[in-house]
Design brief:
single chain; about 375 residues; TIM Barrel; 2 domains; nine-stranded mixed beta sheet
Length: about 375
């Protein structure tokens, strides 16, 4: 087979093997590459005697979203976030709901080129308080995400990683050092689920969650997509909730969201709303203070309540805020107990809007 060559910026976290291949050390997949080969993520490739990131500066599109869509319910509520992704993924989830981006094998899907500085400028110009690396997993475009986070921080813009948390210890430290918030997909709570549906390992994700909780100041929340017949049994939800309570504590928000048929699981039915309500009840019974439901209309399950007095703190109807009972520094107005999270002044008013955006840097190329 003829070797291919790739354009791109030098990638980090790899080493040479004795057999002539190079091994990617970014995620626990440890892809071993001959000249001209790509890793499973499809965007990290061997070119010559080095690893390159082929999607640096190239995006599948930019959009302004509500921060609650990430989902983050305790991070600058009501504000706008500039969201973007690239292409590829280091997991192979059969239920992927962004498969047209994360499974892309055609680089013509990457229609926009933008420098990190242009992204930061666009966030400022459009009144976004943060930039989110989302749609596909930012772990695989670590170099681009970090450079963008540095540019954003210089402009007073915070950054959010929406990730499956499938990353090795050394790059994990560098990556999250530059992030202000994260939502981690805890896709299930058995090795069987991760092996059969994601071609991955649960243990590595749990390590990321414990690292974020105990060794960083990153605000993070957890999302679990409940799939009928796969990870929605009461016993698995109980085990997951108990693990979060024991290892992360009661204040980490946990979102249970509804599956809809997609990608390679078109024959699996959607998640019944009753399953989500059951999961929320189980999570709260385990001692978790903030358990949410998602992808269904459930104002009670979307809203935030004081863990001390039970007062409604933030009312939500989908992505619209309908009530606000917090001080500017995030304390309950009824009992003065702080709500865990990142609160900075009054809530934003972005609501449920979603607006596509063009972000380009004139004359800039990778």
């Amino acid at each position: 087979m003829e070797a291919l060559s790739f354009d791109g910026v030098p990638g980090r976290y790899w080493h040479r093997l004795d057999d002539g291949r190079i091994r990617c050390d970014l995620c626990p997949r440890y892809c071993r590459l001959h000249e001209g080969q790509r890793g499973l993520c499809f965007v990290r490739a061997r070119s010559g005697d080095r690893m390159v990131l082929t999607t640096y500066g190239r995006s599948s599109g930019f959009c302004i979203d509500p921060i609650e869509k990430k989902p983050l319910n305790h991070f600058l509520p009501g504000t706008a976030v500039l969201s973007f992704g690239t292409a590829g993924c280091n997991l192979t989830c059969k239920f992927c709901q962004n498969w047209d981006i994360s499974k892309a094998r055609q680089f013509d899907r990457l229609q926009e080129r933008a420098s990190p500085e242009a992204i930061a400028d666009a966030a400022v110009t459009n009144g976004c308080r943060s930039v989110a690396f989302t749609y596909n997993d930012p772990v695989i475009f670590l170099e681009y995400a970090i450079d963008t986070a540095v540019a954003c921080r210089a402009r007073g813009i915070r950054t959010v990683a929406v990730s499956a948390g499938y990353i090795c210890p050394e790059p994990r430290v560098e990556f999250f050092r530059h992030m202000d918030a994260a939502n981690i997909d805890l896709k299930g709570f058995t090795e069987r689920f991760y092996r059969n549906l994601c071609s991955a390992q649960l243990g590595a994700v749990l390590e990321t969650l414990e690292y974020l909780r105990h060794e960083t100041k990153v605000w993070f929340e957890i999302t679990t997509l409940l799939i009928p017949g796969e990870n929605d049994s009461p016993s698995e939800i109980e085990a997951l909730s108990a693990w979060v309570m024991e290892h992360l504590g009661p204040d980490v928000p946990l979102h249970f969201t509804a599956f809809h048929p997609d990608w390679k699981m078109l024959d699996t039915p959607p998640t019944p709303p009753a399953t989500l309500r059951m999961a929320r009840t189980i999570g709260r019974a385990a001692g978790l203070h903030h358990v949410y439901v998602g992808n269904v209309h459930d104002p009670e399950g979307d809203s935030t309540y004081c863990q001390a007095c039970g007062a409604l703190l933030i009312g939500r109807d989908w992505y619209d805020l309908t009530a606000w009972n917090l001080t500017d520094d995030g304390r309950c107005r009824d009992c003065d107990v702080p709500c865990p999270g990142v609160f900075d002044g009054p809530p934003g008013g972005w609501g449920h809007r979603r607006r596509a955006l063009s972000v380009q840097a004139s004359g800039w190329s990778t």
